[in-house]
Amino acid sequence: SQTIHQWPATLVQPVGSPLSLECTVEGTSNPNLYWYRQAAGRGLQLLFYSVGIGQISSEVPQNLSASRPQDRQFILSSKKLLLSDSGFYLCAWTALSNSPLHFGNGTRLTVT
Amino acid sequence: AQTVTQSQPEMSVQEAETVTLSCTYDTSESNYYLFWYKQPPSRQMILVIRQEAYKQQNATENRFSVNFQKAAKSFSLKISDSQLGDTAMYFCAFMKTSHTGANSKLTFGKGITLSVRP
Questions:
Q1: How far apart are CA B20 and CA B76, in angstroms?
Q2: Is pLDDT above 60 for B101?
Q3: Distance CA A34, CA B39 (A)
Q4: Which tens digits make up the pLDDT trace of B19-69?
Q5: Which of A2, A15, A52, B2 has a beta carbon 3.0–4.6 Å from A27's, enabling a disulfide?
Q6: Chain B closest CA to A98's CA: distance in Å?
Q7: Mind telling me how many Å the CA of B106 is from chain A's nearest CA?
Q8: For chain A, counts of helices (H) and of strands (E)
Q9: CB contact under 8 A, A100 and B110
Q10: Do A43 and B50 touch (CB under 8 A)?
Q11: ∠A22-A78-A111 over CA atoms, to 5°?
Q12: Contact predicate B19/B79, CB 8 Å
């Protein structure tokens, strides 16, 4: 069966520090991968998605970037964190178009 | 662009009773999918139910069912025999049908917090 791993679960970082969140999927090949952010009182906002290795689409211009160095690995990064980057970050995958997304357990990021 | 609106921020229901969560959406697409996701305090996003827009029959999954009104662009979730474990945030989500196989993006509402009282 397919599983998705996301880490770390919790992260506290100072303003101006770099960020790297990692997500991996097991049990499937060539998944579509997604990064969402959930801010307090808001729904989930799509940040990036990827349909293949090295293929990244950005939905919202911001201080973050994403990379997909391997088929089942998706990384969310920042060179310098801002206070506004605080939130709950969720990675998700789907194997087929028009299928539900399956989510990881999320990372709670607090920028201080 | 598609939008999803959940106008009720919070609801409360007595255990074993029935509750309906509302959702409306706006789109110019004719083919799409609608979903309800549940986010318990653990914050894991769990798929509750899915509805294909081309199907007239409302989807049902055990105690969960939807009332899909395509013309009104309404997609409500009914939870029957509410249980304490149903306490969670519920998100309505929209997915445009993709024919290219390229991607499937979900657009979410802001969510509604449901509390089930013992």
A1: 7
A2: no
A3: 18
A4: 999 999 999 988 899 999 999 998 899 999 999 999 989 999 999 999 999
A5: A2
A6: 6
A7: 8
A8: 0, 11
A9: no
A10: no
A11: 90
A12: yes
Per-residue pLDDT band for B100 (boundaries 50, 70, 90) equals low
Distances in Å between the Cα of A81 and the Cα atoms of A62, B16, B59 are 11, 46, 43
Q: Is A44 on the interface with B (CB under 8 A)?
A: yes
B27 in Cβ contact with B75 (< 8 Å): no
Pair B51, B94: CB distance under 8 Å: no
How far is Cα B14 from Cα B2, in angstroms, rounded to an integer?
34
Q: What pLDDT, on the 0 to 100 scale, is given for residue A1? A: 84
pLDDT tens by residue, A66-104 = 999 999 999 999 999 999 999 999 999 998 777 889 999
Closest CA to A33 of A108, A91, A105, A100: A91
Q: Do B103 and A42 touch (CB under 8 A)?
A: no
* Residue B98 binned pLDDT confidence (cut-offs 50, 70, 90): confident
Full DSSP string of A47-76: EEEEEETTEEEESS-SS-EEEEEETTEEEE
Pick from B104, B107, B111: CB nearest A99: B104
For residue B78, list its beta bridge partners: B20, B65
Which residues are CB-contacts of B58 (< 8 A; sequence separation ≥ 6)? B51, B65, B66, B67, B68
Q: How much is the pLDDT for B103?
A: 61
Q: Give the residue from chain A lying closest to B41, CA to CA.
A: A105
Among B4, B43, B102, whose Cβ lies nearest the Cβ of A51?
B102
> What's the Cα-to-Cα distance from B94 to each of A34, A69, A105, B64, B98, rounded to whole Å?
15, 29, 21, 18, 12
